[in-house]
Amino acid sequence: MNKHLRQLIDLSKIDKEIDSFEPKMEEIKKDLNSIITDRDTFLKEIENLNENIVDLKNKKRKNETHLAELSSKLEDIAKKNSQVKTEKEAKALNLEDEITKEQLSFANDEIDRFDKTIENQKSKTKELQTNVNELEKSIKAKEVNVNKNLKETQEQREKISTQKSKLISEMDQKIITFYEKIRRWAGNTAVVEVNKQACYGCFMKISDRIHSEVIKTEDIITCPHCGRIIYIDPKSVEQEV
Ligand SMILES: [Zn+2]
Question: Residues 223, 202: contact at Cβ < 8 Å?
């Protein structure tokens, strides 16, 4: 086989392998990432609940202030009541007393209601925090393995990248440019085998003339249908003969 073609085949195999690392690494991280996402969702919920609790506490405090105001108002009414002179005055004070007591009871109910809601939200937060802790544990456990696998994969990738640099340094620049041009649209199928007289890039049948040319010639030949570089594995030619 032509030396340039041999190099092109090797280069395309190396490129294909280099491209396979990214999905491989994603696959390694997949499980761990999904647990991290779950944990972050819980953390976000906890944050929202805590904001809610602060808000509820503020509302409760306002009611407490109001409650204190109402209490001192009741004291005032009681004081005035002891100095009342006419029945009309007494009636008016009585009404004010009733209204104030009603407001007081309402404020007390509100405070109770806020207390209950705050307790409820706090227990939800606690539950979520337990989940977060569990997830943190499994993140820690998985991280060791994932990092080890990632490191190994990274090392393999570096090894192959070194192989590529070496091969490229030995190749004809014009042929590399030609290959890269095809690779831009054909990706990892820029160099394909011809099998059963069909291009294994576009799967179209190749004419007898081009087929025999691919077998015999020392030139680099492209598929007449798609333009990919085609070659015949010498082993498969021996088998066909
Ligand atoms: Zn083709």
Answer: yes
Is residue 35 domain-resident? yes
Distance from the CA of 200 to the center of ligand 1, in angstroms? 7
CA 220 / ligand 1 centre spacing (Å): 14
* Final residue belonging to a domain, choices 170, 201, 229: 170
**Residue 239 in contact with residue 23, Cβ under 8 Å?**
no
Per-residue pLDDT tens digits for 23-33: 999 999 999 99
**pLDDT tens, residue by residue, 150-178:** 999 999 999 999 999 999 999 999 999 99
Q: Is residue 3 part of a domain?
A: no
Rounded distance from Cα 224 to ligand 1 centre (Å): 7
Counting the structural domains of the chain, the total is 2
How large a percentage of the chain has pLDDT more than 70?
98
Q: What CATH number did the domain enclosing 44 receive?
A: 1.10.287.1490
Claim to verify: residue 33 and residue 142 sit in the same structural domain? yes
pTM of structure = 0.70
Q: Are residues 187 and 116 in the same domain?
A: no
How far, in Å, is the centroid of ligand 1 from the Cα of 70? 89
Phi-psi region of 203 (alpha: psi -120 to 50; beta: other; left: phi over 0): left
Ligand 1 center to residue 222 CA distance, Å?
8
Q: How far is the CA of 192 from the centre of ligand 1 (A)?
A: 8
Tokens of residue 185, six digits? 């649209």
Mean pLDDT of the chain: 94
Strand ranges inside the chain, DSSP E: 191-195, 198-199, 221-222, 229-231
Same domain, 78 and 92: yes
Which tens digits make up the pLDDT trace of 115-137?
Answer: 999 999 999 999 999 999 999 99
pLDDT digits (tens, 9 = 90+) for 40-60: 999 999 999 999 999 999 999
Residues surrounding ion ligand 1 at CB below 5 Å: 199, 201-202, 223, 225-226
Residue range(s) defining the domain that contains residue 190? 174-240
Distance from Cα 78 to the centre of ligand 1, integer Å: 102
